[in-house]
## 1
Amino acid sequence: MIVRLDALLNEVPTPSLILDFEEIANSYQQFVTSFPGAMIFYAMKANAHPDIIQLVVNRGGGLEIASLAELEKSFSAGADGSRIICSNPIKNPVFLRRMHEAGVYAVVVDSTYEVEKVAQYMPGARVYMRLAVDNTGSVLPLDGKFGVDAELALELCDLSRELGLNPIGLSFHVGSQCLSPMNWVKAIAACGDVWRAATERGHNFHFLDIGGGYPAGSNHDASIPTTAEIGSLVMEAVENYIPPTPEMMLVLEPGRGLSGEAGWLVTTVEGKALRGSGEWLYLDAGVFNGLMEAFEGFPPVVKLLADGVEDRPLRRYTIAGPSCDSCDVVARNLEMPEAHIGERIVFFDVGAYTNEYAVAFNGFPIPRVMALNRDDIDEAQPVHEEAVLA
Ligand SMILES: Cc1ncc(COP(=O)(O)O)c(C=O)c1O
């Protein structure tokens, strides 16, 4: 049955997260062509849907994992340990032991305590140091919690070697939804300095992991850098700053960049209220059951799905989720056409960090996940193209 896309969005139960696997495959291919020779390790924390993991594994990609549960999911998709890395700087002994048994390629370290722990539970393992780098210009900065400066990175290399580990290189994360591609260039330049100093201390690096951060949304917002733009700057920076190295591994850990644009969350307006001079809309999805990133500061991109929206007056809404908690607010002062109870609002670019974060607080269900079958619709992405930007 061929239906219009907006008709499909009007029929699904809400809240529903619609995933377009063809879009994910296209994004994967974009990374392959934009970063020639690099290895893609999908950061499955973004969206660990088994079909996404399978898609990556089937294309020869690897997986970046943070926990024992993610390791088990990798195995379910048939991933081999040699195609798995762990960039979570804090790992518990059970997880470390299991990674050791599974032959996980390498794990990150960014403290002396972690080096000691890895040496104890993964003797002889390959390790890479996480450098702290500038996250300015990222919508969701990740700095502060993890990463070390150049001096400590070198000390951790030495300690790793003393404890029988194999220090193979460096990693960093420029922050999620990074809108400033120069962050990668500056970080790679910093890695080049550490790389040379490590070589002088007798270390043999071959592994440069430039992390995640690739933004979603460039398909409808020209100010957001594309994977191709970032790729060309990164490849040039690697050439300029990293000493020529045989068997060099350039590693990417895209999360949002792979799955973000491929997800739409369909919600229903369940209630309205006037509070002072402000107008409120209450949806069946909110901070707890799917839209945590809006709470963290990610600006929502939404569209009201209703007939004749173009003729309706514009309103400025506070948009809230269904729970009783007052922090359950996903947008303030969001301009959009007047909405009525029972109508639907679609959130775009939410294929990452939506269901992975979601819990059924207050009994409100997490979004049902549906695969978009493009053969069933008669147009590509018209709804997205008309999206009202916040
Ligand atoms: C170590 C690591 N790698 C990769 C990612 C994926 O980042 P993004 O979704 O911004 O690409 C994250 C996200 O938090 C991360 O912590």
## 2
Amino acid sequence: MQDVTDAAFWKLMHRYGGADVYWTEYFRVHAVSRPEKWILESIEQNSTGKPVIAQMIGNDIPSLVRTAKELQQLPVAAIDLNLGCPAPIVYKKCAGGGLLREPQRIDSILGALRDAVSIKFTVKTRVGFNSVEEFDMLLPIFAKHLIDLLTVHARTVAQMYRLPVHYDLIRHASEAMKCPVCANGHVYSADQALEVLNQTKARGLMIGRGVIRSPWLFDQIRQRLRGEAVTYPRGRDVVEYVHALWESQASFDAPEKIQVERMKKFMNYLGEGVGLDGSFLHQIRRAETKEKFFNICQEFLDHDEQARLEPQILIAGKSSQM
Ligand SMILES: Cc1cc2nc3c(=O)[nH]c(=O)nc-3n(C[C@H](O)[C@H](O)[C@H](O)COP(=O)(O)O)c2cc1C
């Protein structure tokens, strides 16, 4: 995830159990691009012992081929192409999710990259640009190029991050593709993760915002898969996580106010799972100093009760998703 998933963030996730594989932020690829230094550093500094997949975004075939050949020299498990980014600045340039409007172009890009990439080559896609109907046309293109993994974020680009997530289309992909399919979109609890795996028949899950909110989620899903009871953090464990997040993000030369602002970005995810009335997030968004920021965390979370950190609708067992 842009501006989130660097080596420090992966290291922090790993402390809580972590993922089996990590994706980099995407490298922006165009005629004069060079792989971004800070993303290269995340690969070089990966201390989790788990594989890393290098993701690229772009549409210029010679540049994508050049970059893929360069990236595959690094300690990465695969080269991944992003066909899902919904940011207007990206899709209007016909990159990321914007490419889904031009299936023939995807066909050419995948052909060139499949030839150029000698390690595993994977694709992360949404299910269409404007409409889910487009997915039927996209799947045969993914299948044709013998990719090694297809990750499906089952929303259209036009949907951005709104519900529903079309898990039925991930199942369709699992049935149609020879390669493994990874399901992505709106997984926030271990129970829900199992439901998504069952419903989609996917071989794995990619989780984004859910683990910023709760790094315990990785191990909770493992517990659930083993048929064990799921254990939840206590409020004070969450405070500890927020401190660890601060340390992992701390930059000695950035003013305190900037660091607080950066933390608020993470808290937008975590805060949704704290309390029912939104007052935690409301207060956090107004904090300007580190002291005030952590005082608010203490006030809401310094307790020994279970902190589920799940959207209230899931806790109530009324997921509109499934
Ligand atoms: C801040 C942010 C940055 C993201 N950056 C990337 C990215 O660089 N590459 C990518 O494939 N997806 C990116 N995504 C999308 C996520 O990988 C994921 O597909 C999406 O958030 C849905 O999954 P989730 O509900 O588990 O978060 C980003 C999402 C967010 C919220």
